[in-house]
Amino acid sequence: MKRCLDDVYPDAHCELDFTTPLELLVAVVLSAQTTDVRVNLVTPALFKRYRTAADYAGADRPELEEYLRSTGFYRAKANSVMGLGAALVERFGGEVPGKLDDLVTLPGVGRKTANVVLGNAFDVPGITVDTHFGRLVRRWGWTVEEDPVKVEHAVGELIPRKEWTMLSHRVIFHGRRVCHAKKPACGACPLAKDCPSYGTGPTGFEEAAKLVKGVEKDHILALAAPR
Protein backbone atom coordinates (compact mmCIF):
# COMPACT_ATOMS: atom_id res chain seq x y z
CA MET A 1 0.00 0.00 0.00
CA LYS A 2 2.86 2.34 0.77
CA ARG A 3 4.46 1.68 -2.64
CA CYS A 4 1.12 2.29 -4.31
CA LEU A 5 0.78 5.63 -2.51
CA ASP A 6 4.26 6.53 -3.82
CA ASP A 7 3.05 5.87 -7.38
CA VAL A 8 -0.27 7.69 -6.97
CA TYR A 9 1.13 10.82 -5.30
CA PRO A 10 4.79 11.24 -6.35
CA ASP A 11 4.54 15.01 -5.89
CA ALA A 12 2.66 15.08 -2.58
CA HIS A 13 3.68 18.02 -0.40
CA CYS A 14 2.64 20.30 2.40
CA GLU A 15 -0.37 22.21 1.07
CA LEU A 16 0.30 25.25 3.24
CA ASP A 17 2.29 28.02 1.53
CA PHE A 18 5.42 29.20 3.36
CA THR A 19 9.01 30.32 2.80
CA THR A 20 10.47 30.17 6.34
CA PRO A 21 10.07 27.93 9.42
CA LEU A 22 8.24 30.76 11.21
CA GLU A 23 5.76 31.14 8.36
CA LEU A 24 5.07 27.41 8.36
CA LEU A 25 4.65 27.29 12.12
CA VAL A 26 2.14 30.14 12.04
CA ALA A 27 0.29 28.64 9.07
CA VAL A 28 -0.09 25.28 10.81
CA VAL A 29 -1.48 26.99 13.93
CA LEU A 30 -3.96 28.90 11.76
CA SER A 31 -5.06 25.73 9.95
CA ALA A 32 -6.92 24.42 13.01
CA GLN A 33 -10.65 24.08 12.27
CA THR A 34 -10.28 25.40 8.73
CA THR A 35 -8.81 24.41 5.37
CA ASP A 36 -5.31 24.88 4.01
CA VAL A 37 -6.91 26.73 1.09
CA ARG A 38 -8.42 29.30 3.46
CA VAL A 39 -5.14 29.72 5.34
CA ASN A 40 -3.28 30.27 2.06
CA LEU A 41 -5.67 33.11 1.21
CA VAL A 42 -4.88 34.85 4.50
CA THR A 43 -1.14 34.35 4.89
CA PRO A 44 0.32 36.45 2.03
CA ALA A 45 -0.87 39.69 3.64
CA LEU A 46 -0.21 38.37 7.15
CA PHE A 47 3.38 37.35 6.38
CA LYS A 48 4.06 40.67 4.70
CA ARG A 49 2.89 42.54 7.80
CA TYR A 50 4.48 40.27 10.44
CA ARG A 51 7.93 39.12 9.39
CA THR A 52 9.54 38.08 12.67
CA ALA A 53 8.65 36.43 15.96
CA ALA A 54 9.02 39.83 17.60
CA ASP A 55 6.43 41.26 15.20
CA TYR A 56 3.88 38.70 16.40
CA ALA A 57 4.86 39.16 20.03
CA GLY A 58 4.30 42.90 19.81
CA ALA A 59 1.29 42.84 17.48
CA ASP A 60 -1.67 45.12 17.94
CA ARG A 61 -4.33 42.59 18.85
CA PRO A 62 -7.32 44.13 17.01
CA GLU A 63 -5.23 44.56 13.87
CA LEU A 64 -3.95 40.98 14.03
CA GLU A 65 -7.46 39.65 14.62
CA GLU A 66 -8.64 41.35 11.45
CA TYR A 67 -5.96 39.55 9.44
CA LEU A 68 -7.07 36.23 10.95
CA ARG A 69 -10.85 36.76 11.06
CA SER A 70 -11.74 34.61 8.03
CA THR A 71 -9.89 31.57 9.40
CA GLY A 72 -12.40 31.18 12.25
CA PHE A 73 -11.69 31.25 15.99
CA TYR A 74 -9.61 34.31 15.17
CA ARG A 75 -9.38 35.61 18.74
CA ALA A 76 -7.95 32.34 20.01
CA LYS A 77 -5.62 32.15 17.01
CA ALA A 78 -4.42 35.70 17.65
CA ASN A 79 -3.63 34.67 21.22
CA SER A 80 -1.76 31.62 19.92
CA VAL A 81 0.47 33.41 17.41
CA MET A 82 1.21 36.28 19.81
CA GLY A 83 2.14 33.72 22.48
CA LEU A 84 4.26 31.84 19.97
CA GLY A 85 6.09 35.00 19.02
CA ALA A 86 6.76 35.90 22.65
CA ALA A 87 8.00 32.39 23.52
CA LEU A 88 10.31 32.30 20.49
CA VAL A 89 11.79 35.68 21.40
CA GLU A 90 12.20 34.86 25.09
CA ARG A 91 13.56 31.32 24.78
CA PHE A 92 14.96 30.79 21.30
CA GLY A 93 16.35 34.14 20.18
CA GLY A 94 13.39 34.71 17.88
CA GLU A 95 14.16 31.61 15.81
CA VAL A 96 12.01 28.50 15.38
CA PRO A 97 13.85 25.57 16.99
CA GLY A 98 14.58 22.51 14.90
CA LYS A 99 14.02 19.88 17.60
CA LEU A 100 10.76 18.17 18.56
CA ASP A 101 11.38 18.48 22.31
CA ASP A 102 11.79 22.26 21.94
CA LEU A 103 8.89 22.80 19.55
CA VAL A 104 6.33 21.08 21.77
CA THR A 105 7.17 23.47 24.61
CA LEU A 106 5.77 26.36 22.56
CA PRO A 107 2.18 27.45 23.32
CA GLY A 108 -0.34 25.69 21.09
CA VAL A 109 2.24 23.40 19.49
CA GLY A 110 1.70 19.66 19.81
CA ARG A 111 3.47 16.74 18.15
CA LYS A 112 1.39 17.04 14.98
CA THR A 113 2.35 20.68 14.41
CA ALA A 114 5.95 20.01 15.43
CA ASN A 115 6.27 17.14 12.95
CA VAL A 116 4.87 19.26 10.12
CA VAL A 117 7.45 21.95 10.85
CA LEU A 118 10.33 19.51 11.29
CA GLY A 119 9.55 17.54 8.15
CA ASN A 120 8.90 20.47 5.83
CA ALA A 121 11.05 23.31 7.16
CA PHE A 122 14.01 21.37 8.58
CA ASP A 123 13.95 18.13 6.56
CA VAL A 124 13.76 16.09 9.77
CA PRO A 125 11.55 13.01 9.21
CA GLY A 126 8.27 13.06 11.09
CA ILE A 127 4.82 11.46 10.96
CA THR A 128 1.95 13.93 10.98
CA VAL A 129 -1.12 12.32 12.54
CA ASP A 130 -3.97 14.60 11.54
CA THR A 131 -7.59 13.44 11.25
CA HIS A 132 -7.05 12.08 7.73
CA PHE A 133 -3.91 10.15 8.63
CA GLY A 134 -5.37 8.55 11.73
CA ARG A 135 -8.61 7.65 9.98
CA LEU A 136 -6.90 6.02 7.00
CA VAL A 137 -4.28 3.98 8.83
CA ARG A 138 -7.02 2.55 11.06
CA ARG A 139 -9.23 1.88 8.04
CA TRP A 140 -6.31 0.09 6.40
CA GLY A 141 -5.57 -2.00 9.49
CA TRP A 142 -2.11 -0.55 10.01
CA THR A 143 -3.02 0.12 13.65
CA VAL A 144 -6.04 0.04 15.94
CA GLU A 145 -4.73 2.87 18.11
CA GLU A 146 -6.85 6.02 18.50
CA ASP A 147 -4.38 8.20 20.39
CA PRO A 148 -2.35 10.24 17.84
CA VAL A 149 0.97 9.66 19.63
CA LYS A 150 0.37 5.91 19.71
CA VAL A 151 -0.63 6.00 16.03
CA GLU A 152 2.57 7.89 15.23
CA HIS A 153 4.72 5.29 16.97
CA ALA A 154 2.83 2.30 15.57
CA VAL A 155 3.13 3.47 11.97
CA GLY A 156 6.72 4.54 12.56
CA GLU A 157 7.57 0.93 13.32
CA LEU A 158 6.16 -0.17 9.93
CA ILE A 159 7.83 2.41 7.68
CA PRO A 160 11.52 3.41 7.41
CA ARG A 161 12.20 6.71 9.18
CA LYS A 162 13.49 8.46 6.07
CA GLU A 163 10.04 7.93 4.48
CA TRP A 164 7.95 9.37 7.30
CA THR A 165 7.42 12.91 6.00
CA MET A 166 6.46 11.88 2.48
CA LEU A 167 4.28 9.07 3.79
CA SER A 168 2.38 11.64 5.85
CA HIS A 169 1.80 13.85 2.81
CA ARG A 170 0.67 10.93 0.66
CA VAL A 171 -1.75 9.49 3.21
CA ILE A 172 -3.24 12.95 3.81
CA PHE A 173 -3.51 13.55 0.04
CA HIS A 174 -5.34 10.22 -0.31
CA GLY A 175 -7.70 11.08 2.53
CA ARG A 176 -8.60 14.39 0.92
CA ARG A 177 -8.95 13.08 -2.62
CA VAL A 178 -10.17 9.48 -2.52
CA CYS A 179 -10.61 7.87 0.90
CA HIS A 180 -13.26 10.23 2.29
CA ALA A 181 -14.62 9.76 5.79
CA LYS A 182 -18.27 9.05 4.97
CA LYS A 183 -18.18 7.87 1.36
CA PRO A 184 -14.76 6.72 0.14
CA ALA A 185 -14.30 6.18 -3.60
CA CYS A 186 -13.53 2.46 -3.21
CA GLY A 187 -14.25 1.53 -6.81
CA ALA A 188 -11.82 4.16 -8.11
CA CYS A 189 -9.07 3.66 -5.55
CA PRO A 190 -5.64 2.42 -6.70
CA LEU A 191 -5.15 0.80 -3.27
CA ALA A 192 -8.40 -1.18 -3.46
CA LYS A 193 -6.92 -4.66 -3.96
CA ASP A 194 -4.90 -4.39 -0.74
CA CYS A 195 -7.47 -2.55 1.40
CA PRO A 196 -9.22 -4.54 4.14
CA SER A 197 -12.02 -1.95 4.19
CA TYR A 198 -12.80 -2.16 0.48
CA GLY A 199 -16.55 -1.80 0.05
CA THR A 200 -17.02 0.89 2.69
CA GLY A 201 -17.92 3.16 -0.23
CA PRO A 202 -19.33 2.45 -3.71
CA THR A 203 -17.36 -0.22 -5.57
CA GLY A 204 -18.53 0.55 -9.10
CA PHE A 205 -15.85 2.45 -11.00
CA GLU A 206 -18.13 5.02 -12.64
CA GLU A 207 -19.96 5.87 -9.42
CA ALA A 208 -16.79 5.99 -7.37
CA ALA A 209 -14.94 8.08 -9.96
CA LYS A 210 -17.39 10.93 -9.33
CA LEU A 211 -16.19 11.09 -5.73
CA VAL A 212 -12.50 11.55 -6.55
CA LYS A 213 -11.23 15.11 -6.02
CA GLY A 214 -8.14 17.16 -6.76
CA VAL A 215 -5.92 18.07 -9.68
CA GLU A 216 -4.56 14.50 -9.65
CA LYS A 217 -8.00 13.06 -10.48
CA ASP A 218 -7.15 11.91 -14.02
CA HIS A 219 -3.93 10.29 -12.83
CA ILE A 220 -5.72 8.52 -9.97
CA LEU A 221 -8.48 7.24 -12.25
CA ALA A 222 -5.99 6.03 -14.83
CA LEU A 223 -4.27 3.92 -12.17
CA ALA A 224 -7.54 2.60 -10.76
CA ALA A 225 -9.47 1.97 -13.99
CA PRO A 226 -10.51 -1.65 -14.66
CA ARG A 227 -8.08 -3.38 -16.96
TrEMBL record:
Signal peptide: none
The reaction(s) this protein catalyses: 2'-deoxyribonucleotide-(2'-deoxyribose 5'-phosphate)-2'-deoxyribonucleotide-DNA = a 3'-end 2'-deoxyribonucleotide-(2,3-dehydro-2,3-deoxyribose 5'-phosphate)-DNA + a 5'-end 5'-phospho-2'-deoxyribonucleoside-DNA + H(+)
Cofactor list: [4Fe-4S] cluster
Matching PROSITE patterns: ENDONUCLEASE_III_1, ENDONUCLEASE_III_2
Membrane-spanning ranges: none
A GO molecular-function descriptor: endonuclease activity
Class in the EC hierarchy, top level: lyase
Pfam name, any one: EndIII_4Fe-2S
Keywords assigned: 4Fe-4S, DNA damage, DNA repair, DNA-binding, Endonuclease, Glycosidase, Hydrolase, Iron, Iron-sulfur, Lyase, Metal-binding, Nuclease
Family that this chain belongs to: Belongs to the Nth/MutY family.
Designated name of the protein: Endonuclease III
UniProt organism field: Amycolatopsis heterodermiae
